[in-house]
Amino acid sequence: MFDFTKLWDLQYLFGANLAGMSRSDLIFFWIAVAMAAAALISKAAAIRASADSPKRYLFHKYFHSLLTMGILVLLWAGARYQNIPWVQTHIVALVLFLITLVWLGFVVFYHRKDYRRHLSEWKEGKTKKKYLP
Question: For residue 91, what pLDDT is reported?
Fold first, then answer.
């Protein structure tokens, strides 16, 4: 279980990595691996969708956000393992996760608001193309 009381400890946020990878570092690492795996799954779903489909556009949005943040957090984990100053601090990883939440928030907002409308317009256009010369 992740200890959220550490988030207000300055030594945890800005401290050096003296003892190697801690348990929270490994949790961050595996979250990044899961994000990269989810990105690959969304890329496979985007490839399976039609070329001009809004579904393809949506899955590409998920792919780009998850892969970018997965790779950045994996780079952070490597910097943490190699003891690179300032890059290895936990505040960097937490800021990356905050950026991920904001980015995915915009993608989910698109998914909830505009995706259905774009999908219905695309289906209507596809039906029109089917029956009109």
Answer: 87
| Number of neighbouring beta carbons within 10 Å of residue 45 | 16
Domain ranges for the chain: 22-131
Question: Which tokens belong to 14?
Answer: 């800005």
pLDDT-derived band at 3 (thresholds 50, 70, 90) equals low
Helix ranges restricted to H, 1-133: 10-14, 23-48, 54-82, 90-113, 115-131
Nearest to 81 by CA among 3, 12, 16, 11: 16
Q: Is the pTM of this model over 0.85?
A: no
Residue found by looking up tokens 């990044």 in the block: 32
Cβ contact 49:56 at 8 Å: yes
